[in-house]
Every structure is written in C-alpha cells, then in structure tokens.
Amino acid sequence: MPNAPEPPPLPTDLTAAHAMNLAERAARLASEIAVEQLKLEIARLRRERFGTSSERSARIYTLIETAKLNRVDPQAWLADVLARLPDHPARGLDDLLPWNWTQPHPQPIAA
C-alpha cells in the first residue's frame, strides 16, 4: 500500500485567526468522524442484538403463522402475551405459547 501523500506545508505568514479557523475545522472534522464511528458501532450492536431487518421479519412472521396454525388470532394473542409478559412468572411461559394460550373470549379464526 503506497504511503499517503504529505500535506502541503503551511504558509509562514499564517495569522492567529487563520490558525484558529484551521483548528476549529480540524476539531469539527474530528467530532464528525467520531459521530460517524459511533453511528456505525450502534448499527453493529443493533444487528448483533436484534438481527437484520429480514431476520426480525422472519421471526415475526413465524410467530404470526404459528398462531394461525393453532387457530389463534395472532393480533389478540400477541397483544395479550406482550401485556402479560412483564408480570408473568418464568416457570409459566409455556402457558403463553399459542398452542397453550387461552383467550378470555375465544374468537377462533379460519386458517
């Protein structure tokens, strides 16, 4: 890989105002680079934690289709499960699966 070209030398008659302007531009550029690097890191962590958008879509589609296969209204099931999940005991999570879930007012749907 060839070495990067050397920047041109600074003029010798550089005034203090010009030097401050250059320093401000350099600081702004450095902060813009830092922001871009932070955005890339956030995107990487989001992909790592939640997967890509196609993976998330596949997970949601799987939940919906599983509910339909068990003759459960997917919207009612997901709304109920998401509402109950924070206070639901971990040992009873099987009760929230579509094939075990019961709705207060059952409304089966056509498959």
UniProtKB/TrEMBL annotation:
Source organism superkingdom: Bacteria
InterPro entries according to UniProt: IS66_C
Span of domain Transposase IS66 C-terminal: 62-99
Protein's name in the database: Transposase IS66 C-terminal domain-containing protein
